[in-house]
Write a structure and sequence with these properties.
Largest sheet: 13 strands, mixed
Helix content: under 10%
Strand content: over 45%
Distance between the termini: 41 Å
Shape: globular
Number of helices: 1
Structural class: mainly beta
Length: 257
């Protein structure tokens, strides 16, 4: 249960979920969930203001977490996950809402808890969304390849840093490979934003190579985000779209044994 500054109801935002394991291989979810896929270029469990670099932590691949007090980002619906040997499939259907600012039928997402309009204070600036998501992954915890198909349609035209669309479609491929003390992981995402009379397509990729042991590690990471790429539930720096970024990062970690 959460309320922003200026809102009149303590029940302005609520969240919760129910998890039911029907068999050892089949699990159902009902309520608010937040998928985590690959390194977060498309779906991340971290929010836009998450600390640290999500792309340096590949151990979150394929996790499905619950919503926090953050109003935006969770998927509210039903999901089913099934496994057969080394194959895992997750299907989800959600009807969610975003806390947005809507003016002249154009919606923008609010990035803070401060409402700027009377409709926002009254809780009437809700942007509706219908999401269909399918994830298939084959492999083990250390070595896997996965494919994600996702489509979200909105009740209003959504403006994300200048990129406008009523629907966003994504196709992604992720790879996670461990070889001895080495680790290769990354993903490639194709996005398409569709407005009434136009379409914008973009291709983005993040990849990394990691070497070392538990106490000392070296990570080399590269990313390319096209300006038209839209990842409404992406982790930084891909969150919300409007990026134009190419770069290489090198980091080292040292821990006590």
């Amino acid at each position: 249960v959460e309320r922003d500054q200026g809102e009149t109801s303590m029940l302005d935002h609520t969240g919760g979920y129910l998890k039911y394991r029907a068999t050892p291989d089949v699990t159902f979810y009902i309520g608010d969930v937040r998928p985590g896929i690959g390194v977060g270029t498309l779906y991340a469990r971290q929010t836009r203001s998450a600390l640290g670099s999500p792309v340096s932590r590949a151990n979150g691949i394929g996790k499905l977490g619950t919503v926090s007090s953050d109003e935006n980002g969770a998927l509210r619906g039903v999901a089913a996950r099934t496994t057969f040997r080394n194959l895992s499939i997750l299907a989800l259907y959600a009807r969610s809402t975003w806390d947005a600012t809507i003016q002249d039928s154009l919606a923008t997402l609010r990035l803070s808890g401060q409402h700027a309009t009377e409709n926002g204070i009254a809780g009437k600036d809700a942007l509706g969304e219908i999401t269909k998501l399918l994830i298939a992954r084959v492999g083990t915890k250390d070595t896997s390849i996965g494919v994600t198909l996702s489509r979200s349609a909105f009740t209003h035209l959504l403006d994300l840093n200048g990129i406008q669309g009523r629907a966003h479609t994504h196709a992604a491929v992720e790879v996670n490979l461990r070889l001895g003390s080495g680790h290769v992981f990354g993903e490639i995402v194709r996005s398409q934003s569709t407005a009434s009379e136009s379409q914008q397509r973009a291709l983005s990729a993040v990849g990394a190579v990691r070497f070392g042991s538990r106490t000392q590690r070296l990570t080399i990471l590269g990313r390319r985000l096209e300006p038209e790429y839209v990842g409404i539930r992406s982790a930084p720096p891909a969150a919300y779209g409007g990026n134009n970024e190419q770069g290489i990062g090198i980091s080292t970690e040292m821990r006590r044994s």
